[in-house]
Structure of NAD(+) diphosphatase:
Amino acid sequence: MPPSVPAVPGPWPGGALDRAGSERDDDGLLDGLRAAPDTRVLVIHGDAAPVSDRGLVLVPVSDVAASREWAFLGRAADGAGLLLAVVDEERNAAVPAEAQWAPLRAIGGDLSADEAEILGTAVALAGWLRDAAFCPACGTRTLLRQAGWSRHCPRCGREHFPRTDPAVIVLVSSADDPDRVLLGANAAWGGSRYSCFAGFAEAGESLEDTVVREVGEEAGVHLDAIEYRGSQVWPYPRSLMLGFRAQAIRDDDARADGEEIVEVRWFDRAEIGAALRGETALKLPGAASIAHRLIDDWYRERV
């Protein structure tokens, strides 16, 4: 039986941010929160936010000189409002001298679970706010509603919401040796980093079918014992990464597709452990990714 609670909750477990979705229908919510003295703002430029040694840097509304878009992220534990401000230039927000701008990919794994959830939500929503200004049906500029969580087309009347595209990511273990896993080097990384196999679910396809198809296409391996392990928001551009473990039916079938994946290799547990500790030249996924958690979880099972 699979575990009732996924074994790999991901680096951003979630649940700390009170999204307070029922408040979004208040047309005056953003104006009211911008006027409230205890409101805190997370400023996003691209996929980066200001951080310091203490974590995410939240600023008062008055420190945001110009924002392309505003949105309501939710409520902090003390009830204060949390706003997102999407800026085109870093200088549009006054941040403390000790802060620096850092992208989600680089810092997501180093933040607390609470802060990582807030940042992941903010980057995902900011991307949609930037990229979806026009109605995809008729091309008319849309109007923001629900405190930044929906768009209304004044011409055709359609309502649009932030998209989340399901994608799978799979760690494949050996049919012959429980101490081996199969990883692939992606062409986009120059073949220098090995990771799990991943891809988007297609229309009309179940997640299990996606797992089988993606691994078959990228690594040539047929699978058995497919097991869901956990999920993670991954706003590049707007994905929900659903993590799986699976077992190869025949190890010898493994081969790279030569296009997206330039090399596949079986790694034993000792090699993976050394790479996780930074003792070898082998590069694995960064700590902010669910791929890292899938690999680390597998490694620790028998250590």
